[in-house]
Write the structure tokens for this entry.
Amino acid sequence: MPREPVKLPNRVETLSILAADGRVDTDLEPALDPADLRRLYRTMLTCRRFDERALTLQRQGRLGTYGPSKGQEAASLGVAYALEKDDWLVPTFRETAGLLWRGWPVHTWLLYWGGFEAGNVPPDGVRDLPVSVPIASQCQYGMGLAWGCKLRGAGRVCATFCGDGGTSEGDFHEALNFAGVFNLPLVMVVQNNHWAISVPRSRQTASQTIAQKAIAYGMDGLQVDGNDILAMIVATREAVEKARTGGGPTLIEAVTYRLSMHTTADDPKKYRKDDEVKEWEPRDPLLRFRAYLQKKGLLDEPGEREIDAEIAAEIEQAVRQYEQYRQDPAEFVQYMYAELTPELQAQQAELRAYLERKHAPAPAPVS
Ligand SMILES: Cc1ncc(C[n+]2csc(CCOP(=O)(O)OP(=O)(O)O)c2C)c(N)n1
Ligand SMILES: [Mg+2]
């Protein structure tokens, strides 16, 4: 009857492949198609340039509140790359890079931040949910989709995101518990960007890692350098493969950093030190990936200038399209269900009739 450590079947590991200076662990480096590497870089850069443009538009009063993903581009992009087209992805609003990879047009993403319902509509054939804002609600949706995937038995998986703050919500734990018990094909990704608005990671949980929470739910946990696109791809591929072949869920903690503000409604200078940001700046996923591609001979100066110009043109075109967009106000219920309920149909008809009356030319004065 000894007293001894409990032997647990699940593992918690940490993974990093690409160092901040572009050096790579060649034993762990995935063999990726050079064309894919270039496309991944282009997507990451599009996301960064979009972020910069969106901030300017918001400050000029041309966009609603905006939540930047600066510094976190590799985490969602790596996950999106590791999924197949028919797999599901459930984003928060920080997964811009991943959504761009999945096929969301820049223009649609501007509509989302502009407050238009059309910005919540995934492009045809893209199996992503629209952004859900309530913290950790994504975990429940992802778990439900994973359950659906399992019941249908078609080998599909679901990757779902939440933030470090999200791990303090019941939804996160309930979803993981359910996914563990029912062995669901779920890849639960936590973007640990060290802040939940003004609450630091240290006040979020006393556990050393977020990845280790997996153990309590009977699944493996992997802590990944979330600013390392190669590590994110390798980790997600493993988790996806396991999920697809009946091995159940995985919790991935992507360790990253929110280099910018929470949203444009926030001033981080009020609660965090500039030194902390400076410490993370050299670990920027974009700089790191760029250095890697340069070392591999896949990116040179003329190539970069070309990509820069293409992205600038793409974003300006999207801004024009966004600013020309005119919403039909009666559209506000359009995207809630595949088919409108009779009640919503009636509300929509009532609103349309009201708008017609309101905009009808005034009757000619009676002489
Ligand atoms: C249930 C709920 N409570 C509060 C909010 C307001 N809110 C939006 S984001 C956020 C912090 C989220 O932090 P984290 O989960 O770490 O994600 P991050 O913003 O860092 O990506 C809060 C409190 C919300 N959206 N939903
Ligand atoms: Mg956070």
The mean pLDDT is 96. Residues 94, 133-135, 162-166, 191, 193, 195-197, 258, 262 surround thiamine diphosphate (ligand 1) (CB under 6 Å). Strands lie at 12-15, 88-90, 158-163, 186-192, 195-196, 199-200, 220-225, 250-255.
